[in-house]
Design brief:
By secondary structure, this protein is mostly helical. It has helices at residues 94-103, 116-129, 134-147, 161-187; strands at residues 22-23, 30-31, 70-71, 78-79, 85-87, 90-92. A hairpin with a 6-residue loop joins strand 3 (70-71) and strand 4. Helix 2 packs parallel to helix 4.
């Protein structure tokens, strides 16, 4: 329940998500409430797992009073609906998933990802501070940008702005080094 920020009285759901200020029904202060639609929905409980009815039914390894619905494909333990973890068509228990994560035996489980766009941007910015090393780092940044432009970046969608900024900084560094070498040659 959402309350007024001034008088702490409960607010009606009909003033939620309007594009304008609405008066509080109790104190009249103008207020605007932006809420996710899920706030107004009734929450249905998750799947609890079916209780054992017959003594002949198999019980879950982790919840003996729950009916087993499937066996773990790795260790063979019987699992209830709560304990069944489906990954790419395979059904695993929590222990096998944890073991597979630690031993890296589950090939489809991705636990980390290298963010090449962040790496390229950080290298290009650090090379601005240590200008002498930019003749090495600028080509490395250009290589990272060109090589990993189409690589998967993050699990969440990201833009290419980091790559573009890194490419721009590295390009300016290369241009500055080229101009410096040209000016040095011209002086001699």
């Amino acid at each position: 329940m959402i309350k007024c920020t001034k008088c702490a009285s409960p607010l009606d759901a009909d003033i939620y998500n309007k594009n304008q200020l609405s008066p509080c029904p109790n104190c009249g202060v103008p207020i605007r409430v932006d809420a996710f639609p899920a706030l107004l929905q009734n929450v249905t409980p998750g799947e609890n797992g079916e209780r054992l009815i017959l003594d002949d039914d198999a019980g879950c390894y982790y919840h003996p009073d729950k009916k087993a619905v499937i066996a773990c494909e790795s260790c063979g333990r019987f699992l209830c609906a709560l304990c069944d973890l489906e990954m790419h068509g395979r059904h695993l228990c929590a222990a096998c998933l944890e073991t597979g994560t630690k031993t890296k035996s589950i090939k489809t489980l991705e636990t980390r990802r290298t963010l090449y766009d962040n790496m390229a941007l950080h290298i290009s910015i650090v090379s601005l501070l240590f200008w002498f090393f930019s003749f090495i780092t600028a080509p490395v940044v250009i290589y990272l940008v060109v090589r990993h432009w189409r690589s998967q970046s993050s699990i969440m969608p990201r833009t290419k702005i980091r790559f573009m900024a890194a490419f721009l900084i590295a390009g300016l560094q290369i241009a500055a080094w080229s101009w410096g070498v040209y000016a040095l040659i011209r002086l001699t």
